[in-house]
Each structure stands twice: as structure tokens, then as C-alpha cells.
Amino acid sequence: MWDTKRKNGRVLVAFGLTIVFLTIHSSFLPRYLDNTIPTPRQCASLRASLEPSSDFIASRNTLGSDRFVEGTPPVLIRNAKILTGARNGTEIVFGDILLDKGLVIGVGYIPNALTRLPHLRVVDAGGKWISPGIVDAHSHLGVYSAPALNGASDGNSMKSPIQPWLRSLDGLNTHDDAYKLAIAGGVTTAQILPGSANNIGGQAFLIKLRPTAERSASAMLLEPPLTLLLNSSDTRPKYRHMKHACGENPSRSYGQTRMDSAWEFRRAYDQARQIKEAQDSFCAAAEQGLWDGQTPFPENLQREALVDVLRGRVKLSVHCYEAVDLDALMRLSNEFKFPIASIHHAGETYLVPDLLKKAWGGVPSIALFASNFRKKREAYRGSEFAPRILADNGLPVIMKSDHPVLNSRHLMYEAQQAHYYSLNPALALASVTAVPANALGVGWRVGMLASGYDADLVIWDSHPLALGATPVQVYIDGIPQLSSPAMLHKPAPFQDVPVTPSWEQEVKDTIKFEGLPPLAGRSTTGSVLFVNVSQVWTRGGGGGAVTSLLTADEPAHDWQVLVQRGAIQCFARADARRGECAARGYSADAQIVDLMGGALAPGLTTFGSDLGLSAIMLEPSTTDGRVFDPLTMVVPSILGDSVIRAVDGLQFGGRNTLYAYRGGVTTAVVAPMGHGFLQGLSVAFATGASNALVHGAILKSETALHISVHSEMLASVSTQIGALRNLLFSRSSLGAWSRVKNGEIPLVIKVHNADIMATLLHLKGEFDALSTSSLRMTFAGATEAHLLAAEIGAAGVSVILAPARPYPATWDQRRILPGPPLSRKTSVVTLLEHGVNVALGVQSDYDARNARFELAWAALDSDGVIDHKTAMALSTNNMDKALGLDHITLHGEDLVIYQGGGVFDFDSKVIGVASGRRAVVELF
Q: How confident is the model at residue 15 (pLDDT cuts 50, 70, 90)?
């Protein structure tokens, strides 16, 4: 009895001290969610399980999904190959799938009794693949809307580094043009995060992407937390979501150091801890019958979400790259005892897997890009092999978009690349379905296909891990989302999981060199005999059209190709090599390389990024810097009328440049860095050269003159056109402008808007009518060029599409031709059909390495219109013509060496370059 009184006394003392503390410290004065006095039931809710009960699941299976739309008919999809996501993602069911009341009713064999539902719609999948709907764990859909306009950008608040009270839902634009694009890529669920400018940016929310009858942001929510008070009858507790950020972004936004950031986190969590302890003391007293019915429950509206983090009721997503930040994050989670659901961007996580296992409450999932690295210091050691290495160490891997950094429509492409670089195929598919769903606390209803799960699925035209896989239909809550989708007919090999190359040595080197493995190859001027060759493509050493050395009637065979000093000396079938190749210099001591059915093909040319002028985009000291724009800036008098040349600022050996080289891109064309009207003269250089003095490093020092015309500049569009008109028609034009007027070099205009292009075409017509030479004009960017395809073709203007796959990022780019499944044709096909010389460019340095996959994707999306030769031309002959390289006399050519397959295959990898320009063979 005495012990009980003493215990009750301690509780009363603790409760009294808590109330005194809260009264004295004004920052913790009570804030109320309503005007009623809380009851002990509020204490009970703190411990209520957030996992759905078996009773709830049973009721849901009977009544249907909370997102079911009355009147939606049941759907039976027959004759499919279903990737259910079960058995660690390995299960494949051949059969049918039944959807009703917003749920999956059955998968595989569907009893006849279940197929007698009224108004049942039957869909024949024709043996196609079905996967769960894609879950994007890191998206800014709706808060960074397309097209980007000042009134529709709500991703970051710059009020304070710590803002857990903000909610992305309050800025969710329901008119974002990207929703339908993401659905067309198979995305059905997304976590909408605040931006990363703050250490604590606010609360995130899960949404389903389909349109709703209510047309509100709230109606899109999946598992809305009770704190939103949307439905008073819904009393089931649910997880909340929140965004944190470490490293460069908050430091850059608020002038912090990492030490400042760590303290901001600790101070915020210490305040939340004190509130939590006050609540626990209150509830302990109430549960002992010591609550007076009048004393309010202690809470703080600005900190209540952080208190929920400490209670494990928030799925926390943390933007964090480097080991130093990850270490601080692990210490923070253990100091304040809260779990971390997922770490995002996570560039160095693969280097410290054991550290991540120290997170309080369990191992976090790791959300990654596939190849988007090196734009800032903390991303410099990012690796394409990170998913594989993390999986080998038992950490769950998520591939994410960070939309609009990457268009979430192509999130499956991130999983495809992860698989290409050796992530297990089941884990690659799970990285955009089950794993993000589990990390977000909704793995019991989305991310898999099984009885009782949400009726979210994608029917694909090929295996979803095959390059260019395109949805045939997308269901969200059992409702089909694509109206009259354009159907593609994919080749048979694309119906199977791609057989990807071996990367075992590269994985070991990545770990050994902490993300910075040596990228230089081994060069030889001697003889190299390539055996087991299936394709040989060449441009004849002089920049001509791409042609095959094997005639059309020659079957794929065991060919052998002899190369000396980087040039092909002979090619023959295996049984003939001793004759023909011996006569041309074959010797027994030649190095023999087995291409395993691989190919030799011309090196590709990239354009559109700052490759060669920038090592780390956001680190000014690693770039050439921005040029002065005479239209919008005061240009130093010392420059006079000179036009800036990119060749003068070239940097060789950058990692993005060398990765492009190792990806089959042997030539890069880059213009001076700048976003104003006048950029300057571009240069063409060899990506594999070590410096500008190496023979063949500079292919052409001045290729084209580059300007930009767009509506986002300080000067009006009409002012920009007026300046161009003056430069073209002024008799005093000298130097570069004189060469443009004489037709010696092209004028490359970065422009996206069709109306501006129309004005430029009219200006070209005026010039050509008054001049003895025709103006060589190229549109770069050119998102809306398809609207003027006939006029552009008639004017003889070239087009470089960048990005290759369109996105309505700005007002000038809003009228895209999206391609299948949303449109039958693509911009590439439309332009080619009108005789336009069209090429494919890039926008980011890191993406140059993926040029060959972009060409393959363009061919696949053309549904047979673009053949192998035409696809190659998009980054060779056509690019050369558009940029003024078509008249260069090249002494030899660069042939890229592919092992295991052809230029466009996920089966192949680049293992070297046979450079006739430099008279060497370089093997990686």
C-alpha cells in the first residue's frame, strides 16, 4: 500500500513539474486542434496500432476499397503473364486477374462463380505482361507543376530551416500536366514531398494519380492521416509522412554548415522530445485516475508532427548523400530513438552499408537514381552499381524519379538501368513496386497483385524491364486510365527479361576505389583480332552515311575482324581468316578479343549538355563559367565585339565525359555555357582524349554559332528577334556572324516554342531571298517542332530534339507530342516523315552516356518506322549535318566495340574503341 502511494506521488510530482515547465516556456504553450478539453481516449490513441487489423482487412475485402467509385464495373483480364510481386518478387502467374470494388479479387485461376458478376467487362491481355502499378517514393508532382509557372511552384518554403508543420498537400496543384504523363508510364501511386531546401521541409502525402469526380487535392489522397480531419467517421489511425534533408541543399539555402544543420535537427527533436515526455506524464497520471478533467492535454501544433516521428507514427524520408551526413543521421536517430523509413538520393550509401544498419528501429530503404550523378560534390561518387551493392548487403532498394528532376513517366527506365547494371530482375521490379510501398507503410494494399490489394496494375507491351516497355493499359482503383492507347508491336526478344552483361569487375572496382574507379583504358597500336562478331557498321572513315559491311543476305555468323592502328584491315568468317586476313597482316601474336556475338559500330556524337566545360555542374570552380550576354548584360569593354569560343575553356578527362566515352559516345559538341541570347561558338572534341594537344583531340575548333530565343529571358522575344534581325542584315557584321551569313557555319538556335520557330523560319526566308547564300539554321531543344514539321522540312532547317523524350517543363514546351501510348506518332517520326534532318540531343552531362539507349527507344517507339541505320543517323550523320561537322575531312573514324550484342541491346556493353583518328585500339 505504501509503495502504491509513493508511486502515485511521483506521478503527481512529475505531472505538476511538466505543467509548470510548459507554463514557463512560452514556445511550448498548448495549442489545440479543436476547442474541446481532451479526454483520456486521446492518450489511448498514442499507442493505437497503425497496421490494419485482420478485422479491417476482412471488412475491406467484403465492402471494397475506400477509393472505390460507385458504378465502376468489375474487370476480368484474361490470358496474362502476371508479375505478382510475391515470393520476393519472383512469382509469375500465367492466367487471369479479376478486379472489383477497387480491389484485386483473384489472381491466376478464377473460378467460374466469380466471373458471373453483373456488368463484368472481359479484357484479353493476349499473353502480355502485367505488373503491379508503379509506386514513386520520391515525387514533386503537383508542387513543382508542368508547365512551370510562378503561381504553381510550391515545393520549398524559405521561411526557416525547420518547418515540420508545413504540408505538401496544401500546395498540390490538381492541374499539373504531368499527371497524365506519369500514368502513361505506369505510375499509379506517388509520395508528394516538399523540396529539400530545408532541414525539415514539412509533411508529405501519398496520392493516387487518377482524376476524381471531386477534382480536389484531398480526393487524390491514399491513406489520409486523421490529422486532416477529412472524414469524421474514419477513425482508423494511419501513418503520416515527412521530409528531412541533409547536406548541400539546406546549407546552400540558409548559409549553414553541416554543424549548423546537425544542431538544427537536434534542437528540433529535443523540443519534440520534451513535448512527448509531457504527454507521457499526462497520460500516466490520467491512467492512474489522477486527471482532473480540466487540465488540457499538452501539445504544440508546430511540433506535433515531430512528436509523432518520435512515436514511430511517421514514415520519414530523408534526402541525404554523403557518408558524413549519413553518419550524423544515424547518430540522430539513435539519440532521439526514431525510425527512418527511407534515405533518398543516397549517393554514398553503398560505401557504408554497415553504418546504415545502425539506424534506430530497423534498416531504412535506400531510394536512388540509376545514373543521375555528379551534378554536385555530394553526388560525385554516385554509382550505377549502388543498387546491386546495397542489395548484396541486405538493404532494400528503391528507384525513384524526384519528379520533375526525372520525368516520373519514365520511372521504370530507372529500374531497367538498375537491372542492366546487375541488380537482380526481381529486385529491380520490386524497386518501383513492393519496396517503396512497404517503406511508405502501404505495402499491405499497393505494390503487389494479390487478393485484397488495390486494383492498381499495368499491362505492358513487353517485359517491363525491357528497354522502351510501354503500358498498353493502366488501372487505378480498378478504373482504366488510357483512352484508345496507341499500341506498339515489340520484337519477340523484348518479351523476355533482358540478359544483361557481367559487371563483376566493375562492381569490385567501384567498392575498391570508393566510387571513383579509374576510367582510362589500355591502348595498343598493335593488331587486335575480334572474334565472334555479329555486326560491323562503319562510316567509311570520312564521315559518310552509316552502312553495314555485311550484306543483307549474310546471316549473323561467327565473323572475325582484324584491326591495326585503330582501323579495320579485314573481316571474314572464322573459317576464312587464315586466307584473307593473313594476306592483310594477320599475325599469330595479335591480341584476340571475343565479342560474344557483339558488334563494331561508329562512335556517337552528343550535344546539348555542358560536357567538357563542367566537371561538377553546381561547383563553379569546376566549370568554365557563364558567358556575358550582350543583350541582357554589361559586357566588359576588353572583350570588344569578340564571340566567345567553347574551345578555349575545354576540360578533358572529366568523369561524365569519360563515362560518355565508355558508353559509345566518341565525339561531343559543346557551346559556351550560358542561358542568355548569345552563347558563342561551339567546339567538337574527342571524349576519349586526355588533353587538347593530343592528336585528334579537337575535331573542329569552331563548329557553329549558338544563340537562344525564349520567353524566360529578361529581354522580350520580340527584342531577341530584333537583335537577331540586326545581326543578320547589318552590313557591318564581322567574324562569326559573317561566316553565318555566308553559309560557312550553322546558326544553332535553342528554341522550344512553335510560334517563335515560325518567326525564325520567316526571318530565314527573308534572309535567303536577299542573300546569295542560304542561312544554315538548326533548332535545338525544339519540343514543339512537330507542330511545324512540314514548314521546317521545306525550309531545310535541322532539328536537334533535347530532351529526346518530350516533357512540358515550361510554357514554351507545353504542346508536346507525347508518343505511345498517348499518341500514335512521336516527334522524331513526324519530323522524319516531313524530310527534316533530325538528331537526338541531351540536356544533362550525366545523360550523355545513355545516348545509344535513347536511339533504341526512339526506334522502338516508332513501331518499325525507324530502322537500325536511321536510328544510328540520329546521333551520327544527322547530328553532324545539324552542327556543321558534315564537311570535315576525318582521317579515320572511331569504331565502338560492343560485347554480347549490338549498339541498341541491353545485352551488350562497350568494352573499347578502335580509333582510326588516333591510330590506337583502347580496351576498357
A: very low
Over residues 29-49, the mean pLDDT reads 62
- Under DSSP, the state recorded for 322 is S
pLDDT of the residue at 589: 80
Q: Find the helix packing angle between 717-729 and 754-770, rounded to 10°.
A: 20
Angle between helices 2-24 and 258-287 in degrees, nearest 10: 140
d(CA 239, CA 225): 6
Does residue 96 have a pLDDT over 60? yes
Give the residues across from 670 on adjacent strands. 683
Q: For the segment 323-371, what is each residue's pLDDT rounded down to a tens digit?
A: 999 999 999 999 999 999 999 999 999 999 999 999 999 999 999 999 9
Amino acid identity of residue 810, one-letter, is: T
Distances (CA, A) of 313 to 225, 290, 369, 449, 874: 10, 27, 27, 26, 52
Residue whose grid cell is 544527322:
878
Question: In which order are the strands placed within the sheet that holds 838-840?
Answer: 678-681, 705-708, 747-751, 777-781, 798-801, 838-840
Q: How confident is the model at residue 281 (pLDDT cuts 50, 70, 90)?
A: very high
CA distance 367 to 369: 7
Q: Which domains does the chain have, with CATH numbers?
A: 65-132+449-494 (2.30.40.10), 135-274+303-446 (3.20.20.140), 517-602+893-924 (2.30.40), 604-887 (3.20.20.140)
Q: Are 243 and 196 a contacting pair, CB within 8 Å? A: yes
Residue 907: C-alpha distances to residues 161, 416, 494, 595, 875 (Å): 46, 12, 11, 12, 21
Give burial (CB, 10 Å; 0-12/13-18/19+) of 249.
Answer: buried
Element counts in the chain: helices (H) and strands (E): 24, 35
pTM, two decimals, is 0.93
